[in-house]
């Protein structure tokens, strides 16, 4: 198959380290491993130019915004700055202008030699997939990872909320197939205009070739100065909804029985300074390591050093639509997991067999579960082994790629002769 993969989201540097970037690259890699030819088209490659770009399988088509879009955004930002105001409006206008720019470029490249189908990671205000698919008369398979319009309004604010919602409905209703990362998100997609029979649930996955079950970790521990004590690890963005502010209290409580405990925080984000201050205030600074943003290769090396891996999500004011990438990577490495039972997490983890769950926000239970596992190496090992078996059997990127191809083949069979 020839597949055009579109990621029109300016917030996803496809060669970067954030989770969404990993998701894009892993799907491209899995499709390539299955023998398909993939071209990934995207406007942004890296967030920080000093970072070494991650490698990607297949072909990469970099389509940055045209000068007129950049100039328009700059003018809007200068106008807001003059008024002492800031809003998401400049970025939203850029996204809308980019639809025509990217579509024009893609049609220039693919009209003569079209792909078999279009695969698009849904992005706020993006109609590129619909425009290109309809122009080429090829099916569009849309991947939806969040309720984009609602998420933008809730977490970032929006000047054009009604238009964002309308755009989302437009794209969902015109996609031949929609892949959602969770059952809750499937319900959302249908309510937002997708045909019920067109929506399929496809949770995130893991590259089982890269994320190996716990083996010798001495070299990695030495590299990061982790010592010989127990390690509790977290991977992800340091943002409020990830529940990272529960970690300082966790360290303070567990330090009483485990003075050589190390909390390893792999990732970066706006809460880092606040976290550092909280660890300091609780007298636990010596117990924590912040790695900052690291390559996905380093993430795969660090997770097996963990004795316990945590996903302490907060209680949200809305449904937990998401499919946490960290969860599958923790489990694939055979690490015992303690996680908040939010949304899909309770479907992936079997309580007491492949991990320990607790109600989001119940920090006391979170700490109790971690203490139980620290005190019982045999339980940790058994739980980690069961988790690895579960994920490796059911939640790999190769499974997801196979699902995409199967959906496309079904769409082909449903085509009516003209």
Number of helices: 16
> What share of the residues lie within helices?
40-55%
| Number of strand segments | 13
From the coordinates shown, what is the CATH architecture of the largest domain? 3-Layer(aba) Sandwich
Largest sheet: 7 strands, parallel
Tell me the count of domains: 2
Quick description:
The protein is of the alpha/beta class and 418 residues long. The chain has helices at residues 19-33, 67-83, 89-110, 128-136, 148-156, 161-173, 183-191, 218-224, 247-254, 272-281, 296-302, 325-332, 345-348, 363-374, 377-394, 397-414; strands at 2-7, 37-42, 59-62, 117-121, 140-144, 177-180, 199-201, 231-235, 262-266, 288-292, 308-311, 336-340, 356-358.
Commentary on this structure:
The protein has 418 residues and is of the alpha/beta class. The protein folds into 2 domains: 2-205 and 397-414, Rossmann fold; 218-394, Glycogen Phosphorylase B (Rossmann fold, 3-Layer(aba) Sandwich). The protein has helices at residues 19-33, 67-83, 89-110, 128-136, 148-156, 161-173, 183-191, 218-224, 247-254, 272-281, 296-302, 325-332, 345-348, 363-374, 377-394, 397-414; strands at 2-7, 37-42, 59-62, 117-121, 140-144, 177-180, 199-201, 231-235, 262-266, 288-292, 308-311, 336-340, 356-358. The strands form 2 sheets. It has a 7-stranded parallel sheet with strand order 3-2-1-4-5-6-7, sandwiched between helices. Strands 10-9-8-11-12-13 form a 6-stranded parallel sheet, sandwiched between helices. Strand 11, helix 12 (325-332) and strand 12 (336-340) form a beta-alpha-beta unit. Helix 1 (19-33) packs across helix 16, helix 5 (148-156) packs antiparallel against helix 6 and helix 12 crosses helix 15. The radius of gyration is 22 Å and the shape is globular.
């Amino acid at each position: 198959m020839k597949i055009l993969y579109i990621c029109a989201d300016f917030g996803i540097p496809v060669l970067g380290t954030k989770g969404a970037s990993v998701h894009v690259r892993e799907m491209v890699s899995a499709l390539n491993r299955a023998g398909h030819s993939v071209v990934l088209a995207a406007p942004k490659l890296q967030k920080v130019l000093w970072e070494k770009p991650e490698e990607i399988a297949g072909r990469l088509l970099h389509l940055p915004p045209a000068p007129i879009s950049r100039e328009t955004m700059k003018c809007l930002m200068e106008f807001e700055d003059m008024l002492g105001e800031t809003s998401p409006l400049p970025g939203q206008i850029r996204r809308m202008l980019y639809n025509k720019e990217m579509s024009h470029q893609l049609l220039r490249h693919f009209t003569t030699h079209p792909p078999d189908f279009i695969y698009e990671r849904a992005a706020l205000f993006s109609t590129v997939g619909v425009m290109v698919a309809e122009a080429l008369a090829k099916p569009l398979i849309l991947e939806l990872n969040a309720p984009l319009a609602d998420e933008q309004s809730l977490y970032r604010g929006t000047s054009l909320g009604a238009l964002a919602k309308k755009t989302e409905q437009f794209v969902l209703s015109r996609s031949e197939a929609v892949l959602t990362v969770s059952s809750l998100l499937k319900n959302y997609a249908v309510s937002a205009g997708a045909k019920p029979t067109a929506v399929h649930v496809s949770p995130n996955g893991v590259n089982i070739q890269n994320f190996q079950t716990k083996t010798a970790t001495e070299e990695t521990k030495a590299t990061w100065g982790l010592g010989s004590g127990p390690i509790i690890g977290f991977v992800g963005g340091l943002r409020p909804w990830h529940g990272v502010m529960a970690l300082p209290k966790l360290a303070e409580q567990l330090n009483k029985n485990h003075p050589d405990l190390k909390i390893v925080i792999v990732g970066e984000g706006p809460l880092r300074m606040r976290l550092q201050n909280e660890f300091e205030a609780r007298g636990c600074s010596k117990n924590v390591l912040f790695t900052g943003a690291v390559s996905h290769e380093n993430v795969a090396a660090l997770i097996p050093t963990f004795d316990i891996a945590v996903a302490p999500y907060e209680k949200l004011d809305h449904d937990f639509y998401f499919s946490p990438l960290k969860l599958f990577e923790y489990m694939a490495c055979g690490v015992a997991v303690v996680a908040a039972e939010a949304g899909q997490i309770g479907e992936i983890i079997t309580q007491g067999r492949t991990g320990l769950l607790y109600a989001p926000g119940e920090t006391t239970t979170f700490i109790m579960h971690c203490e139980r596992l620290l005190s019982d190496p045999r339980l940790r090992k058994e739980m980690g082994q069961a988790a690895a078996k579960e994920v490796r059997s059911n939640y790999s990127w190769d499974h997801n790629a196979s699902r995409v191809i199967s959906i496309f083949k079904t769409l082909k069979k449903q085509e009516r002769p003209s």
